[in-house]
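Late entry, written up from scratch paper. The run itself happened at the end of the previous shift, but nothing got recorded in the book at the time, so transcribing now.
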Amino acid sequence: MENEKIFGMYFAKVYPMLLAKAERKGRTKNEVNEVACWLTGYSSDDIQSFLHSDLTYGDFFRQAPGLNPDRKLIRGTICGVRVENIEDPLMQEIRYLDKLVDELAKGKNFGDVVEAVLQEKNSGKTSMWKCPKCGREFKKNGQSHFCGEKPKTIDEYILGQDKDKQEDLQQIRQILHRALPEAEERISWSMPTYWKKHNILHFAASKKHIGLYPGPEAVKHFAEELQGYKTEKGTIRIPYGKIDAALIEKIAKWCWQTGNHA
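Output as recorded:
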């Protein structure tokens, strides 16, 4: 999936592109850092350190210490899509930052960008369509979206998938539980997650495969053993019916023992 490619890219590769976009229009690195810090709760020092790390772009947002609640008021089009209508929550966080940097590149300074968001908050003039079933609001009337309550447990997540996929998902779950007996099972970013002090790895159902997300270092470390799978940075695509229990258990244990994680 295209989203997974973006989530798995290194922050140190993507963020300089945002800086370059703003700097071409006469804005500064400090201004880009200001909007990124406003959005995520990181400090400028944090961002600088991430530029010299293996942090993925997805994890930059997943691990953000204080996502600004006012970010939900950001409106407008970025990459041909209205940011307020993006359904994938992680991609929406990424596009919020893209939109803020885009506004900087149009000539606005940091104060102007944030003021526009706050004016949206106080104006109450935006007409939003509210789904009568789930209560979510969208700017587009009748916006297509996932209409249902997000799962709170891995049991709920698996039971919410197609019946022909549930057996394989349960098998992955059993393998990971066996490999990580002390880890807590939880839902994070709408995906089954194994956690102990941090997210160790995630898995998720897709149409033709199960996505396993152990992080980019794990994919790199096990590259030879993963030659039979489609992989991207931080992502392993496991076809239904072709689960290698020993390999998955080995990857999970390695993630925990080495501290490399999703």
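The two ends are 17 Å apart (CA to CA).
(Scratch paper discarded after transcription.)
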